[in-house]
Amino acid sequence: MERVPQRSEGRERPVFGHLIATNLRAFTTKPIFDVNPLLFMLSRKKFIQHSAIATASLSLLDFIQPASAAELSKHLERVAPLSPEEAAKDEDFWNWIREQYTVSTEIIDLNNGGVSPQPKPVHDAHVRFLQMCNEGPSYYMWRILDQGREPLREKLAKLAGCLPEEIAINRNTTEGLNTIIFGLNLKAGDEVVLTKYDYPNMTNAWKQREKRDGIKLNWVDLEMPVESDEVFLERFEKAITPKTKIVHITHMMNWTGQILPARKIADMAHKKGCEVIVDASHSFVHIDYKITDLDCDYYATSLHKWLCAPFGTGFMFIKKDKIDKVWALLSAPVPDAGNIGKFESLGTRSFAAEMAIGNAIDFHYLIGSKRKEERLRYLKNYWCEKIAKNPKIKFYTSLKPEFSCAIATFNIEGWDAGDLSSELFDKWKIHTTTAIHEGVNGVRVTPHVYTNLQDLDRLVGCINQLIAQGPPVKKKE
Question: I want to staple 191 with a disulfide (CB 3.0 to 4.6 A). Which of 67, 108, 244, 473 is the partner?
Fold first, then answer.
């Protein structure tokens, strides 16, 4: 990298602007690992020639040391012929993945469903962009980094399985779905179908429209876990009336990790003349699918969960022919235009975080979508199956593969979820979260690709100790 002395103190610093401006022009949407994972072994110059990946930080090669890249090559050669289910159990490969994260040695983080860490190549890219922006914020953010927005949109669209002009890059699922919820042309008397287990930020948005605009909310009742597609279809169909305009589906519920048959519900809803919104906060690149597989009309997700992109990154999807029917939530020159860009008038936000999304996509391709899904499911099953036969354990999550993946929520007989979660952390520094909502009163455990089996063995051992110990005795008031 070219370096020049810093005028004020004589220190050396990178000249980012020239590198970024030059490399952005070379940016393409083809993921590194769609070409050949072994390109990690090539020199930087040859690698870029082969993969045509751009910007100084949108190539993972810049952030993986040669020795680590060589090790990765051996792992990829070994797991390549394996089925995703077989590769999910290859601990050498997953230990290499773990090494790409700056995993805390002080806690065991099993709350990755809330927000996930970035692997080092993504974190380093983010930092590089931040350093560049800080040299001349308005210039490097708005004139240099923003040149990467459309190529990044294309890269995201390829991963998501939709058209680039159907994706708006934003900060999270809440922003995306609230934009849609508040932007739809609904009038008094129109009805919306949703469940009591949908995420609170979405149900509260619908309640606001109910209070402000007079729409009617038809609530679907469920008991966790559900292990039948027919139950979902029956409950949703029963809630639909001739006045129903929207059916809101949470693809994977945050409380328990319950997977819903989104496509089947969408097909049924469309036949009845309804439009379909999908909350994919927990399902995108957690389980292997494309947006077109769901045939929904509207969709949003966060990228700082299962893609491990920088915090505060996400996107929303609207079918191309419906964009002009959704009003922009924030100021836009033409709020009812048919251009997806109208939803990106967010004011100043982190361009550095957005551009590092490209690195997160490349890291995801390195692992492989189906391989990743099967590893996450394997980790969930690994610890759940070790305690499932104990009569004092209650699961709010199905262990059937079609109804769950990484997330599982459990409790021990006699325990309050809050006490149980606190005990796990206070005694053993195992970080989880509680899921207390409707009929669920449990602790949610969410491993990620960097979680190893030793962490889960530790969890199981601690749960068994708590079963033997019994719940804390409540003081009488």
Answer: 244
